[in-house]
């Protein structure tokens, strides 16, 4: 009778471990796929109309050596929708917005990229000033 309990316990453990591994691998693959899609530079709105020019108020992807800032202009203020550091970089400092200018610093070992985003008064689109340090 005792031997049957051990066989059952080991079998139950093996089934649970296998099930958790399958679920974990599926989740990891899902996360990896979404990260690859995010870092591949795919922009659905740009892909839908590649020949059209950006419209005022629309979110613009602003790539820099330290990462990408997605921002838009509204009522003369700069709004940062999200930040995505480049591989190896992290966000060292980011300003709370909206504001006339939005500032963010991306940093990696030995390199710092300071980005200032502001709205162009003529086009009403966000533009960047990048300083490497």
Account of the protein in words:
The chain is α+β, with helices and mostly antiparallel strands. Helices cover about 30% and strands about 40% of the residues. Strand 2 and strand 3 form a beta hairpin.
Describe this protein with a few key phrases:
7 strands, 2 helices, three-stranded antiparallel beta sheet, single chain, 133 residues, alpha+beta
Strand order of the largest sheet: 4-5-6-7
If helices are DSSP runs of H or I spanning 4 or more residues, what is the number of helices?
2
Helix content: 25-40%
Strand content: 35-45%
How many strands? 7
What global shape is seen? Answer: elongated
Biggest β-sheet: count, sense, barrel? 4 strands, antiparallel
Q: Which series of helices and strands comes N to C?
A: HHEEEEEEE
Based on secondary structure, the structural category is alpha+beta
Radius of gyration: 23 Å
Alpha carbon gap, first and last residue: 72 Å
Low-confidence stretches: 40-51
Averaged pLDDT: 77
Brief overview:
With about 130 residues, the protein is of the alpha+beta class. It is about 30% helix and about 40% strand.
Sequence-ordered SSE layout with sheet pairings:
Elements: H1 2-39, H2 44-48, E1 60-63, E2 67-74, E3 77-85, E4 90-94, E5 101-108, E6 111-119, E7 126-132
Antiparallel strand pairs: 1-2, 2-3, 4-5, 5-6, 6-7
């Amino acid at each position: 009778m005792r031997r049957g309990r051990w066989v059952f316990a080991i079998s139950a453990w093996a089934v649970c471990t296998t099930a958790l591994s399958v679920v974990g691998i599926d989740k990891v693959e899902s996360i990896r796929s979404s990260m690859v899609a995010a870092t591949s530079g795919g922009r659905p709105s740009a892909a839908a109309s590649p020949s059209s020019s950006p419209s005022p108020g629309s979110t613009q992807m602003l790539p820099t050596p330290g990462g990408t800032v997605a921002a838009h202009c509204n009522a003369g203020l700069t709004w940062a929708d999200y930040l995505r550091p480049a591989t190896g970089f992290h966000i060292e400092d980011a300003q709370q917005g909206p504001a006339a200018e939005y500032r963010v610093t991306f940093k990696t070992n030995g390199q710092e990229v300071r980005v200032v985003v502001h709205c162009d008064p003529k086009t009403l689109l966000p533009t960047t000033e990048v300083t490497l340090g």
